[in-house]
Amino acid sequence: MWDSFTSGVAVSIMRNYGKNNGENEFAEMEYMNISVVTSNEPYGICDGSNPLFDGRHFPKFKLNKSGLHSGHVQMGLRDPFCFVENGKGKCKDGYTEEGTGPDSVRVLVATKAKPNHDLTSKLNREFFTNFLDVLNRPENTARFNLTTEFPHFRQAFYEPDFKNKTLGKPVVFDMDMSAGDFMALFYLLKVPVELLNLKAILVSPTGWANAAAIDIVYDLLHMMGRDDIPVGLGDVFAMSQSDQIFHLVGDCKYAKAIPHGSGGFLDSDTLYGLARDLPRSPRRYTAENSVKFGAPRDTDQPELRQPLALEIWTSILKTMDPGSKITVLTNGPLTSLAKIITRTNSTSFIQNVYIVGGHISRSSLDEGNVFTIPSNKYAEFNLFLDPIAAKTVFKSGLNITLIPLGTQRKVSRFIETIKQLQLTRTPEARFVKSLLSRLYTLKQAHHRYRHTDIFFGEILGAILMAGDQRKLKPTMQEMPIKVIAEGIEAIDGQILIDEKHGKLVQILKNIDPMAYYDQFADRLGDEKRSAVLGSYDEQRKMWNTPPNRT
Q: I need a surface site. Which of 77, 189, 213, 294 has the fewest CB within 10 A?
């Protein structure tokens, strides 16, 4: 109730504007001199932890060199400086403390919630009564949910019938929900199931989108009539970044490289504003959890919890035919695949691994794409976002085909594909054309979107794996490589050619660009295996129509 209580206090103060000392209905108020603690005693030290002072001739913001903000800044959850033997931690970063010095500010503070005037009520705070009263008022009540907005709302699960078909090679797609990954997923779903049987999708929230963006994956599968494909959620933190004791928290050392605003999470989580054009799936992301699966407590409906990547992996292994093996396509950080390697005894079930990522630099001018970390010039995002996982995968002995950044850049021309897609009419082709057009327009219009062409190259792994090799004319080269994972931001994720200690990997060097554009557009434009529900607008019409008339 804390957030709603603070909102209630703020609204009450605004309604009583003009009265003294923030008078309101719900809290007792008092003026205090307070400061937010940003460092720890002893003050005035230089130990490399404080960015406001260390390495500067003059402190930032003209701070006092021996003042409240000049001490040690906590470096991670397990900073040794912060621990006291046989006692609690001593660091106070982020604490709010009362003070009298020049570093403090006079602020009006809510010090205590007011008790309920009605002594007979079971609600012991005045705010609780008001909160329930406001929620139950008919004024400004919610107008719609799906069942009331649409008179014939009904949920449907679309599952294909493959009983009389001979299924192709089983594939697991590991994605981080970037824009390019969704285009690759459309392509994989359009490939005949006799050639490629997409068994499952693993989602890594260590990349370009937050975990809740898994809803877009569900919606896309619903659109294409593939509600049968299970989706597993990977770890939120990169390997060795979660806390050793409490795994639900950790460090964002590498994930912080993804922009939070334009061109980053803000756009990826909404698929650049196009996510709501997709029909809504009955499957949704949920924060429900269960003690049985490692949660600290059961939530209200633990049976609705989102399946995890390892659970999905284990379940599909049980459905495999004897002697068959899985091909894995990774389009994001290798966190989930590395966890499969280290936590399960199942690498013998993996036939091949196609990795879209990594950069093999040919010269000092041949730079990578981690544009938010200027000190790291030669890494590629997918490997940089979890370098330890990448190192684990490349050292595993699996049969790996690498589709590096340099090759992706050779097939990253928006205009060519947009022209090809203009000749197609399927709903999925129209959607991808809209997405590509938006990425291209944003790239032309604003520097924050200068990197968006990297997403189109991410389709290359899917096309190489399932496309017509005779037309694509891929050129491969075997090379011994290793991935740097030293915990140093300026070099982590970079690939080195190491004849002595490197692992042999197949590298895609070249491919016919025009054949690439043609095959992508032709596959999406194929009327076979097209969308069963073209858009959210089409779904709305269905929900407004009686079942016997659709």
A: 294
